[in-house]
Every structure is written in C-alpha cells, then in structure tokens.
Amino acid sequence: MRVAIAGAGAVGRSIAGELLENGHEILLIDKAPTAISVERVPMAEWLLADACEITSLDEAALQRCNVVIAATGDDKVNLVVSLLAKTEYGVPRVVARVNNPKNEWLFNESWGVDVAVSTPRLMSALVEEAVSVGDLVRLLRFSHGDANLVELTLPPESALAGTQVGEVEWPEDTSLVTIIRGTRVLTPTREDSLEAGDELLFVAAQAREEQLEDLLSVRREDATS
C-alpha cells in the first residue's frame, strides 16, 4: 500500500516509521527544508514541497496513493490537503489530524476527510477511559455514515455481565468489534460471554451512543425490577 503523509514533523515521522515496519510504501511531504530529515526515516521517500499546491501533488503522484494522511500542525493545511487528495486525485482513504478541537466539526466528507483524528480529544478520551467504568468514551470519529469508535468498560453490576453476545439486542447502527479482556484482544462471536471489566469497542452511529450506554450500564436490580 502506498501512503503519502503531508507533514514531516514528529507526528508524521512517527506514523511513517510504524507503516514502514508493516511493509507499506511511504512518501513524506513537507515544505520546510528543516523538516526534511532523511536520516530519521531513511526507508521513506521524501519530497520538499507545499502539499497545498497542485503542482506539488502532481509531483508526488498522489493518484497512485491508497491513503493520504494530513498530519501537519496546521488545521487549515490539513483540510486543504484532504480536499485536494479526495476531489482532485480520488484517493480512496484520507485521514486528517485535528489540532484544535474547535475545528473538529469541519473535518468531514465535505472536506474529503474519511477519518478525523483529534489528538487532544483522544488524549482526554484515554484519561476518561482510565477512570470511568460504565461511561461511554468516544475515541474516534468516522466521517462517512456519521459513525464513531466508542469504548465502554463493562461495570460489575451491569445486567449484561455473563450474557452471551448473541443474546444481546444491540441498538441499530451499532456493531461490537472488539472485546479487550486483560491482555487478550478478542474478536467477538455470538457464543462469547461478556464479563465485568471487559473493555468493549463499538462502531456506532452517534445517535445511538446514549442508547448503547444505557444498555451496557443498566444495573442488575434495574433489569429485574
């Protein structure tokens, strides 16, 4: 898979390193000469250019990319890169970094963004996840379909503790994708039982989040009363 990353700062280089280890072809683009540090990610291609300019993206052969990641520290740049990648080059998957949470509402399909990653939101979500059992935590927003990746740690008093996955009537537009149990990562089947303390990851429509949280957090005595 060919991936172009706009922004060769610490975030862009870190992403590049991870993807290279997984066998992907990486192109790092940055307009600042000081950001071009080939020795830090020697296996990547490097391009000194402005990713907001069509001529630069032509040189980068963006039409050959499977994924474009807009990872600069400037939200305006990330939006422009995302829009150009999607509308001018038809890149199938566009991932954009959100630096200022106030701008998160802009990072949607109208700007060519398939997945928006808000670092401040993710950090706060991880803090909430660490201290909040039974509370739904939004980890990631997907633009298409208005869906989110959400997490909830099943509380001991939940009525669903001990229930098989296939017996649960999940809300519409909701899918349980992973169960994290201790150090194990489980792909859920209908026969798997939910256990207190399980970290449950869902892809869910935003309109269903409250309903999902209510379902998972209902107490045993409430369910039987």
Account of the 3D structure:
This protein has 225 residues and is an alpha/beta fold. 26% of the residues lie in helices and 27% in strands. The chain contains six helices and eleven strands. The chain has an eleven-stranded mixed beta sheet, sandwiched between helices. A hairpin with a 4-residue loop joins strand 7 (137-142) and strand 8. The model has no long low-confidence stretch (mean pLDDT 87).
The sequence of SSEs as H and E is: EHEEHEHEEHEEEEEHH
Structural class: alpha/beta
> Uncertain runs with pLDDT below 50, 5 residues or more?
none
The backbone outline, from C-alpha atoms, is elongated
Strand content: 25-35%
Radius of gyration: 20 Å
Q: What is the CA-CA span between the terminal residues?
A: 54 Å
> Can you summarize the main beta sheet?
11 strands, mixed
Individual helix count: 6
The helicity comes to 25-40%
Give the strand order of the largest sheet, numbering strands 1, 2, ... along the chain: 3-2-1-4-5-6-7-8-11-9-10
> How many distinct beta strands?
11
| Overall average pLDDT | 87
